[in-house]
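> @MW can you paste both from yesterday?
MW: sure, first one:
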Amino acid sequence: MSAPAVTRRSERAGSPREPRYLTLRLGPLSRRISVGHLVTAAILGVVGVVILLTALSLGDTILPLGRVLGAFTPDASRLDHKVVVEWRAPRAVAALVFGACLGVSGALFQSLTSNALGSPDIIGLNTGAYSGVLLVITFGGTGYLAYAAGAVVGGLVTAAVIYLLAYSRGLQGFRLIIVGIAVSAMLSSANTWFIVKGDLDLALRAAVWGAGTLNGLRWEPLLWAGGVALLVALWLPWLNRRVGGLELGDDTATMLGVRVESSKLALVVIGVMMTALVTAVTGPISFIALAAPQIAQRIRPNGGSLDVLGSALVGMVLLAGADLIAQHLIPAASVPVGAVTVCIGGLYLVWLLFREGRRA
């Protein structure tokens, strides 16, 4: 008589567990959030804070945690305030903010293309933003606002060209990637021509900025970029709903009430803006937007579709960790963070190709 009971217990133990949800209410608004996703987000947030505090502590002078926290108080010494608040904090905070921006942009474009390679750096939007800033530098523009305007305009024009060339009875993801790679190659050639034909000062400025670096970053450009990024972040719930609907296919999304083409266009504009904000301050930083959404999807409990918020958190951790490596990997030298992310991205691509090859 006990055997059937054992069988039933085994079946229950082997069956997949249903995800648990919490309902959050703020006035008339309410939202259901998976407990597993909430725990994952909390862990990523803690990792980001640990990296932030580590970046504030390390340097030519290693400061204990007490002095780091004390530097933000009114009673802090002038030296601690200058080192932590004015020199180290802008770079450390920028790595978190810009990593989140790249993660969001990567999630949007990978959702639009339904392809793991559909990120802004592969499609060519980073290159377009770089072209916009190069034109600003060529015509004598200086300062963050000029660079930001050039990056946004360059990114949007590039996105518009790719969108129009790839559009054929709707926007097809694979076609968008192929057209984007072709446009990116042409823009890269044009960028090289601008640098070669420009004077030495232009070439040096373009080379340093084009490496993708957070060196020497101060609060003013970060506050401008962070403010715009915060406004875009308010749309994350709307973005998540559109991303989830589009991943089911155009026909299914239409049945669910999603305006497919207008939603795709809105996601392209938002994704370009997030990429351009980063490019205007740091130069083009590759592979964060490529890897963050895929990592976020794999660490999500129960899998599921691409998650914009999860991609933002993973991008935040990736760029902050890469910048920490860039600062302290080689003693007495600071490597551009773009060089570190390229190495990490190359290893990721090799792993991805090996994994897909074994599946085939």
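MW: second:
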Amino acid sequence: MDLRHARTFVAVAELGTVSRAAEQLRIAQPALSRQIGDFERELGIRLFDRIGRRLALTGEGEQLLGDCRALLACALAVRERARLLQHGDSGVLKVASSPQQIEGAIAPFLVRYAAQYPKVQVKLTEVLGWPATAAKLERGEIHLGQNLIGAVPPDDARFACRPLEPVDLLAAFGPSILRESRGEIEIGQLAQYPLLVVDTDHVFRRHFDAACRLAGIQPNITFESRAPHTLLAMAENGHGVAIIPAALRTDRYNLRITAIVYRGEPVRVQPAIYWDKRRSLPRYAEAFCDMLGAYMREVFPITRPTELSAMRC
């Protein structure tokens, strides 16, 4: 079987049109169409039905798509193992993470990592949500992807993970709000305040919503943003209480910070680094996981609850 045919089939199935697949694979559309035709003749089945300008997988094509993805992943694993045998502790390491994790932990950590692995080029990608991370891991676009423990369904054995330091959820607010707060606040008490939160693409938002449901409260959400620093600017100007992760840097804002608790226990999430079990991680990728875990234990939380005396007026 020609791997080019399998790669073309997967690209067309994922993108839905010959033109978009040809652009991604950087081949001419007629050549791509011929590859699909050759693949169908080789397999003896029709893989696509044409619906307008789009191509839809046939039932047989849907059943073969997963097998072709696995075939390409295995081929990639063989090439990567060969490169490892050649180069040892030099190469490219592709890592995907959330913008907050990159700012709070990975960006400063890379200085330490580069000192020990100067021949490794780390390429970072911003990704929100497990589906996007899982897709990149499956396609071999990244070696490591950061998300939360529990993001992977229990019956999905494709991915392994390395737990990282827990991240608490915090409330950030200006001097006119929560004057009597002294380090922590029960999540139920937040219902009386206007809340500033990230949108539901963020796992921290979904975890906060779940904690609110557990506490039996309806949060008064008055503003949502994709950028957590926008929430801090809004809170600093008295527009409400920003709900943020402890991995976020807040030192340039005039805000008080309070831990969010439920029945006296901190509301927190457990991040992890994931990788595809079918791929062999280079030694420098395994070291990245170990060193990042140690670094986060050393410096987390990035932001801590403040004392009343520390509030700038």
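> thanks! DSSP finds nine helices and 15 strands in the chain.
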